[in-house]
Amino acid sequence: MPKQVDYAERRERVVDAVHRLADRHGIEGVTLRDVAREAGLSMGAVQRGFRDKDEMLALALARVSARFVERARAAAAEPSPGALERVLLDVALLGEGQRAEAQVWLAFVARAAVTPSLAMTLRDGHPEVASLLTRLVAEVAAGSGASVDAAAEARALLALADGLTVQVLLGQLGRDEARRLLVDRARLLAEATRPEAGKRAGPTG
For 91-129, how does the pLDDT look when each residue is reduced to its tens digit (9 = 90+)? Predict the structure, then answer.
């Protein structure tokens, strides 16, 4: 009886191999031959599972995006004053042991700039993360009755988180400093929407 091939398990091995290679060499250093070697598969097995390198990279990126969204959901689901900070730190991949994942993310972003299929995969996960941040910003402002454009603030925070990730990877900022900047921005928003802050900022006399 012919041996049954677990194609799903094989694709998972390929995706894991892509992530390890991208971490070590960047996306341009990922070749089908190297992926096959890293995954412990034959070239033929890898080629039968994917039409080309871009399809293989798209699946690997989809895995990164899915993990990213799942963690953001989990952080946002814990009701506490620090929920916004937790989600932002996770979005920025500034936690302990997340540098390798951040390097893989940046490698994919660079490739996505010139590869429409990868850009589409990145965009697919963006609306849910932006929606989570929008909800958390709105919750921060809700208790004070302050007028805040939660969606615009969420977009700004997301852009800040992405930018800090890049600066840390390039060595322009230390991880602790980047974490502090992001947390301070979230706390500044909370302070600005407190009723006492509104009273202090209002006219006197």
Answer: 899 888 888 888 888 888 888 898 888 898 888 888 888
User: 128 Cβ partners below 8 Å, 6+ apart?
Assistant: 69, 72, 73
Kindly report the CATH number that applies to the domain delimited by 7-194.
Answer: 1.10.357.10
Q: If we measure between CA atoms, which residue out of 151, 140, 155, 115 comes closest to residue 195?
A: 140
- The residue extents of the domains of the chain are 7-194
Query: Running DSSP on this structure, what letter comes out for residue 31?
Result: -
How confident is the prediction for the chain on average, in pLDDT?
Answer: 84
Cβ contacts of 62 within 8 Å, gap of 6 or more: 121, 124
Q: Which residues contact 55 (CB under 8 A, 6 or more apart)?
A: 117
Read off the pTM: 0.78
Instruction: List all residues 6 or more positions away from 37 whose beta carbon is below 8 Å from its beta carbon.
Output: none
Largest CA distance in the chain: 91
- pLDDT of amino acid 103: 87
Distances (CA, A) of 146 to 41, 51, 81, 153, 190: 58, 53, 17, 13, 10
Q: Say if residues 53 and 118 touch (Cβ distance below 8 Å).
A: no
